[in-house]
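Protein folds are increasingly written down as discrete tokens. With that in mind, we are printing a sequence and the tokens encoding its fold.
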Amino acid sequence: MSLTDKAIDRIRDLIQSGELRPGSKLPPEQQLAAELGLSRNLMREAVKALVVARVLEIRRGDGTYVTSLEPEVLLGSIASAVELLRGDTLLELTEVRRLFEPVATGLAATRISASELAVVEAHLDAMRTARDDVELLNQHDAAFHRAVVAATGNATLTTLLEGISGRTVRARVWRGLVDDHAASRTLAEHEAIFHALVDRDAALAQAAALVHISTTERWLREHVDRDGAVPARR
């Protein structure tokens, strides 16, 4: 372990112990370095690394603070990391989505409120209207799923699924461009998910989401090469 890593661990220990709480301001650099037995250079490097990790934030002219440490803050960088993945990781991301999202959809069926259900329905209505516009259809498709997962009330799960969705959304757009029947199937599958949510039927909601995501995954496995590319429409 490098000296910088050890310095990072020392600051993380202060946060985990509760000595530095979410939103609290760190002591001045020189003071904190002395308290932790670190050089000021090591302290600066550790702070920079924790800023990148969204554990700390620097407020110009004010000082360095612990962030809220909420899931959407700490896990929000997953999407950026996912964008850098290469090779057949698109298929792996779709597989991860299949493992998590149906369960989340089933959970949402037991927790979704009337107002949250109305948001889901609004996105479904927008999908119907946009069925001939692949880009717009998939924007509302993604929003539909975000609204469903958000209804679980589980911020960690919501952030994780949102983090992996970017590349899978683009893959679904590709599918819409090369598969003439994708829109009608997609709408039917979303209708099934929505009606299961309306009925508060967790098992049916989970099954409907699994069918939907598995259909997309199966298509991608047949059409996506190892570099994550989909052939253009002929």
In short: The chain has a mean pLDDT of 86. The radius of gyration is 22 Å. The chain has eleven helices and two strands. Residues 3-69 form a domain with the Arc Repressor Mutant, subunit A fold (CATH 1.10.10.10).
